């Protein structure tokens, strides 16, 4: 699990809003690259580039609905275990694309 410092940084970077819908209610910190069954303890999975705020409802759907999971991969909310979250762009609820850094920074991408 991410440290309290990391959790605070994620909330600040994401402006307390869900990347999927923009809600500020019922949020959780979502791992873009899954921790895996049994909870992979890799610190890189708890790095800021791999963590985003997501509403609990959509977070659950990404894990249980094939079509939602596919959309999540297309939008960078889920990233393959064989990829690096630093290199995987992510779209926000408005449709803007970003790269996320490991010092709680984000850079908007003009062309995707």
What does this 3D model show about the protein?
- The strands form 2 sheets. This protein has a 3-stranded antiparallel beta sheet, with no helix packed on it.
- The chain has one domain.
- A hairpin with a 5-residue loop joins strand 4 (97-100) and strand 5 (106-109).
- It contains 3 helices and 5 strands; from the N terminus they run H-E-E-H-H-E-E-E.
- The N and C termini lie far apart (31 Å).
- Helix content is 25%, strand content 18%.
- It is α+β, with helices and mostly antiparallel strands and 112 residues long.
List keywords for this structure.
single chain; 112 residues; alpha+beta; 3-stranded antiparallel sheet; two-stranded antiparallel sheet; 5 strands; globular
* Distance linking N and C termini: 31 Å
- Report the mean per-residue pLDDT as an integer: 92
Count of separate structural domains: 1
- Describe the global form: globular
Biggest sheet overview = 3 strands, antiparallel
Q: Could you name the ranges where pLDDT drops below 50 across 5 or more consecutive residues?
A: none
Task: Give the strand content.
Answer: 15-25%
* Radius of gyration, CA atoms, in whole angstroms: 13 Å
Instruction: Tell me the quaternary state.
Output: single chain
User: What strand line-up does the widest sheet have?
Assistant: 3-4-5
């Amino acid at each position: 699990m991410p440290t309290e410092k990391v959790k605070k940084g994620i909330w600040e970077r994401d402006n307390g809003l869900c990347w999927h819908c923009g809600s500020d209610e019922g949020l959780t910190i979502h791992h873009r690259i899954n921790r895996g069954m049994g909870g992979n303890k890799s610190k890189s999975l708890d790095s800021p580039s791999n963590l985003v705020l997501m509403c609990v409802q959509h977070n659950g759907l990404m894990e249980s609905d094939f079509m939602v999971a596919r959309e999540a991969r297309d939008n960078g909310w889920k990233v393959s275990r064989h990829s690096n979250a630093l290199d995987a762009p992510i779209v926000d609820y408005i449709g803007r694309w970003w790269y996320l850094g490991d010092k709680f920074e984000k850079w908007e991408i003009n062309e995707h």
